[in-house]
Amino acid sequence: MIHLKTAAEIDTIAQAGAILAALYREIPGEIRPGVTTADLDRWAEAFIRSHPGAIPAFKGLYGFPATLCVSVNHEVVHGIPSTRRPLKEGDVLSVDCGVKLEGFYADAAITCPVGAIAPEAQGLLDRTQEALARGIAEARPGHRLGDVGAAIQEVADEAGYGVVRELVGHGVGRQPHEEPQVPNFGKRGKGLKLVEGMVLAIEPMFNLGTANVRTLPDRWTVVTADRKVSAHFEHTVAVTADGPRILTG
């Protein structure tokens, strides 16, 4: 069942999203060679809890042990922070985080370079972020989920990247994951019609190589099947009469 949000509820999600936006403005300064993914996780939890009423949305969710999902290089999503995981020059780090505030959730992700990275990896980051922007532009009343997915897929197809299909975006609100699912592929004019009051997490995941992925024995970390680099960007977006409103921007 899809839960449409009132203007007041969207404003509350935007307040949670503003904390995430602030976190993502700050965290690139914390990402450098030698820092462990556990260091970043501790920093992020303290940052979120420094805002009255805000709590890390992912910590304990479905049993996940941390505030951040931190995924390095060929890890697509859901990497677990570790004190034994120092970052190295040339790594690519995906950071996915959520905030819960006054009973509502916001969700966003970015992928960052660690120092200087390979040009092909930087191209992947740039095009994945471009695909997110194109997908968001389609999130307006009267459009369809297929329009969002097709806009994202077109960027990947132009660049020759693999589009992860097993993992998709989703609705967000009083629960961190709500209906509908929001695939990063599709056909224009197809799928569920978007209406005012929907709030969606739109989150393209592109791979330098194959679209195929697998889950590691830790039952969380999803990796590319060919171990090539992956990138992930995400915003929480409200469908409004005035067009898409980015709540985590």
TrEMBL record:
Tell me which Gene Ontology terms the entry assigns under biological process: proteolysis
Ordered alphabetically, the record's keywords are: Aminopeptidase, Hydrolase, Metal-binding, Protease
Q: Which residues form the Peptidase M24 domain?
A: 13-241
Q: How is the cofactor bound?
A: Binds 2 divalent metal cations per subunit. Has a high-affinity and a low affinity metal-binding site. The true nature of the physiological cofactor is under debate. The enzyme is active with cobalt, zinc, manganese or divalent iron ions. Most likely, methionine aminopeptidases function as mononuclear Fe(2+)-metalloproteases under physiological conditions, and the catalytically relevant metal-binding site has been assigned to the histidine-containing high-affinity site.
Q: Which InterPro entries match?
A: Creatinase/aminopeptidase-like, Pept_M24, Pept_M24_MAP, Pept_M24A_MAP1
Keyword Cell cycle set for record: no
What are the EC numbers? 3.4.11.18
Which residues, if any, are the signal sequence? none
Residues that hold a divalent metal cation 1 according to the record: 96, 107, 234
Q: Which reaction does it catalyse?
A: Release of N-terminal amino acids, preferentially methionine, from peptides and arylamides
Q: Does the record's keyword annotation contain Nucleotidyltransferase? A: no
Q: Which GO terms describe its cellular component?
A: cytosol
CDD domains with a match to the protein in the record = MetAP1 (cd01086)
A molecular function (GO) held by this record is: metal ion binding
Question: Required cofactors, per record?
Answer: Co(2+); Zn(2+); Mn(2+); Fe(2+)
Q: Give the binding site residues for a divalent metal cation 2.
A: 107, 170, 203, 234
Q: Where does substrate bind?
A: 78, 177
Q: Which family does it belong to?
A: Belongs to the peptidase M24A family. Methionine aminopeptidase type 1 subfamily.
- Subunit composition and interactions: Monomer.
The free-text function statement in the UniProt record for this protein reads: Removes the N-terminal methionine from nascent proteins. The N-terminal methionine is often cleaved when the second residue in the primary sequence is small and uncharged (Met-Ala-, Cys, Gly, Pro, Ser, Thr, or Val). Requires deformylation of the N(alpha)-formylated initiator methionine before it can be hydrolyzed.
Task: Specify the protein name.
Answer: Methionine aminopeptidase
Q: Which organism is it from?
A: Longimicrobium terrae
